[in-house]
Amino acid sequence: MPRLSVIATFYSIESIVAHTLTSLSRAATPDIEFILVDDCSPDGTYDELTRLVERVPNATLLRNEHNLGISATRNLALSRAQGDYICYLDGDDFVAPDHYTSMIAAIEELGVDFVRADHVRVHGRRRQVHRIPHGPRRVPDSPRNGILPVNLSTSIDVPQPWTGIYSRRLHDELDVLRFDESLRTAEDREQMWRLYLAADSFAVVGLTGQFWRREVTSSLTAITDDRQFDFIPSYEKVLAAVRANPDFLRFEPKVARTYLAMLSFHLTKPEYSHALKAELRRRAHQSLTVLWDDAFAEQYALQSPDRRHVLSKVGVPA
Fold first, then answer.
1. pTM above 0.70, yes or no
2. The predicted structure's pLDDT at residue 292
3. Which of 11, 125, 217, 227 is a good FRET partner for 70, with 20 to 30 A between their CA atoms?
């Protein structure tokens, strides 16, 4: 049985597949398996994967017959994973040669359910380290302590699943590694909240072996259609999970604050057409009318005047 299963998903990145697989081949060890899944790319991504997959030891290559989206694609690979630990990789990113061995060493040394690490953001030739906002480092902690305080960025506000290594128990016993297949985007936010509410322990480490490309046109963060609006049902699901938690009074203000911040961000995106912005306002109004309570009212009042002005365009119940 492998110690680690690396789940890597690919979609329409033909030109950089070789670089990704080269990084995986350099990071490979005999006790790491790689599960590579192409989500029915319309370009030559799968052909490149087929041509190059033999460079990666212990790699299995799968392809979806139809485009299923990132959540279903990750879940398919997760169902095949045999490792004691799980890591994720988006196919347009890459890793340092020692990344996975360092992550395995960290989670085994610390004895926690999951470990999250810093990463490097790649803009062309520029590199910038992005730190997970949590302290102290390399100290086991409750994931609930990674949610608060409300008014500061915390580790839960960095929802990239590929920054972590996860114990298999989180899947087999708690079922918090699967992604909601109804969400086309923002699936990572909903999954991260379930993870932080259910797991017993985690830690943050200062490893920087994960590289995130920020200028890939096929990335879900780059699309400008209504798939981006799935942050609304994502936060509705998060709020339902939080309100079912015994400590919901502590955590609900955090959800309200981040939901309002995300809504404001999307309302001011210049890339959206007038029709899309009108649809966003309609959906947001419908959502907030149902969700609004004292926590939302309080967090709305704490927003800056400019942000309250933006949010008022959806007809908040304040």
1. yes
2. 96
3. 125
